[in-house]
Amino acid sequence: MSDIPKDHPRYVSLMTREKIVEGVELGITSQQGLVAQGRGECFDYLTGEQTTDSALIAEKVGVAMLLLAERPVLSVNGNAAALVPDSLVKLSEVTGVPLEVNLFHRSEERVNRIINHLKDHGALEVLGSKADARLALQHSRAIVDSEGIYNADVVLVPLEDGDRCQALVGMGKSVITIDLNPLSRTSRTANVTIVDNVVRAMDNMIDLSYGMKELDEAELRKLVEEYDNSRTLSDAVRQMIRKLEELSDT
Ligand code: PTJ
């Protein structure tokens, strides 16, 4: 890992980048994951690198959906595994939602490495290696576990590619995504789009889960029913415009 001084003005962002580089070196993150991280950094810069009010609402609704679901799953790819392994395990533990590794650039070796990585971070069980069911997709993200994503009613998919999101919604599942790009096909297809960095979003969702577990079903349902994803996306774009205007004035 590079030696980045703590007082560097871009410390948090650079350390996050280092985790992705380390993920590639460990063989858990794909090389394409580096490019995805760069794109994410750009959108994060435009949102001011903080959780917006509307992202926090989406995070709350995402937690409500996970708690209400009958067969929810937290999907894990190479970027999420490198950036937030502890938080993935913690969120799974607090909400009781199982983890499943599902990759775009799939190899059995990388699936197993990510499963072991999550276990090293405290996961007791991680789905994804059975690979006994298929989504209606041409690429390897179609390969899933029947007891996991295939039969899930709600799936949380951080850093997603649009095709799979569309396939999951097409199968009647509810999809919660975490994607810093509010213009992506995933963001526009998901039922709930959290426009936030996965690093902040996961921590917020863990914090929210503790309190929300105590809410009754009617209160959780109300949150979901009142939610409007197109408003979240408009808010995110408007936030970026405001930030650009602010920058152009200085
Ligand atoms: O590990 P694999 O093989 O499953 O591959 C994972 C990647 C992410 C490489 C793959 O799914 C991919 O190519 O994704 P895309 O199409 O590049 O989409 C990734 C989306 O995540 C983009 O819209 C980025 O802006 C966004 N993104 C990147 N980093 C972050 C992020 N969103 C939230 N937090 C981030 N840290």
Automatic annotation (TrEMBL):
Q: Which is a GO BP term held by this UniProt record?
A: coenzyme A biosynthetic process
What NCBIfam families does this protein map onto?
phpantohe_syn_Arch, PRK13761.1
> Keywords assigned by UniProt?
ATP-binding, Coenzyme A biosynthesis, Ligase, Nucleotide-binding
Which catalytic reaction applies to this protein?
(R)-4-phosphopantoate + beta-alanine + ATP = (R)-4'-phosphopantothenate + AMP + diphosphate + H(+)
Q: Which organism is it from?
A: Methanococcoides vulcani
| Catalytic EC class | ligase
Q: Which Pfam families match?
A: PPS_PS
Mind telling me which InterPro entries this protein's record contains? PPS/PS (IPR002855), PPS/PS_sf (IPR038138)
EC number(s) of the enzyme? 6.3.2.36
Q: Which residues does the record give as ATP binding sites?
A: R17, R39, D179, L180, N181, R185, T186, N197, V198
**What is an example of a GO molecular function annotated in this UniProt entry?**
acid-amino acid ligase activity
Q: In which pathway does it act?
A: Cofactor biosynthesis; coenzyme A biosynthesis
What function does this protein fulfil?
Catalyzes the condensation of (R)-4-phosphopantoate and beta-alanine to 4'-phosphopantothenate in the CoA biosynthesis pathway.
The entry assigns this protein to a family as follows: Belongs to the archaeal phosphopantothenate synthetase family.
Return the protein name: 4-phosphopantoate--beta-alanine ligase
Q: Which domain of life is it from?
A: Archaea
**Subunit info?**
Homodimer.
